[in-house]
Predict the structure of Signal recognition particle receptor FtsY.
Amino acid sequence: DEGLEKTKSSFLNKLSKAVAGKSKVDAAVLDDLEEVLISSDVGVATTIKIIDRIEDRVAKDKYLGTEELNKILREEIASLLAENEHKLDDDDEKKPYVIMVVGVNGVGKTTTIGKLATLFKNQGLSVVLGAADTFRAAAVEQLDIWSKRVEVPIVKQKMGSDPASVAYDTVQSAVKKNVDVVLIDTAGRLHNKVNLMNELTKIKRVMQKVVKHAPNEVLLVLDGSTGQNAFEQAKQFTAATEVTSLAVTKLDGTAKGGVVIGISDQFKVPVKYIGIGEKATDLQLFDKQVFVDSFFS
Ligand code: GDP
């Protein structure tokens, strides 16, 4: 798996050092393993959970060889990753499928929207973008560029207009034109939590005036290369609104891919997509088995 090269080589390298010259998993190996997981940005709570589980298995089986450690780690990590469903709802009543995209500026939100539009278009679905981050001129401009690049329409208003009004217009235009997927960009200003919560709640409420089921999904975009910051952002956004899925970006060029494991475990929200580059096609559907395998082989 090319996009995860750095995480993988760094993890495997540290793991092999932790077990070098040892034939069985003992307290020292477990200590080293704990270090490996924490330094791979899995997060403290999830690391402790994994170590506890391995300790239990050592206690139960009396002896655990270091060659078996890989297999057991793989199983334990896979069991911590939430399952996800990739199909969009094919219930016609629930058309259009509305994805409200949230996240802090700079994490790759706009890029992820462009990539998602590409993905859906390639599946033969029609898409419309809604520029509901009306706070930053650059946000609307960037989304506009993606709209032209991937040839999907965009609904926008002038700077500073009501984000909920843009979202309303976008969903209404989708209904009128029988569009399959609506991608709504939102502003991610974390410094004012109450405002953030109010803004996201209002966008939802107003979209529901057009289609009761909206949004089908609230996708939180996190920058995987920021490690513990991504945890903090997940905490704040899940407190502000009901997040249903995650996209973790910039996993190319970082060794911090372990965040995917910790965040999925701590927030019980499935990682649905991972970003592995800047191009329109650099988005992968997250498959936990493929992800775990790519860590170890
Ligand atoms: P936004 O402010 O959250 O909308 O962030 P942008 O979508 O504008 O992205 C910020 C920067 O991150 C841009 O330079 C993007 O090209 C870059 N970026 C986004 N996703 C990825 C990714 O998966 N990998 C890499 N390497 N860069 C990315």
Remarks:
- Residues 82 and 270 are 5 Å apart (CA to CA).
- The first strand starts at residue 97 and ends at 102.
- Residues 103, 105-111, 142, 249-250, 252-253, 275-278, 282 surround guanosine-5'-diphosphate (CB under 6 Å).
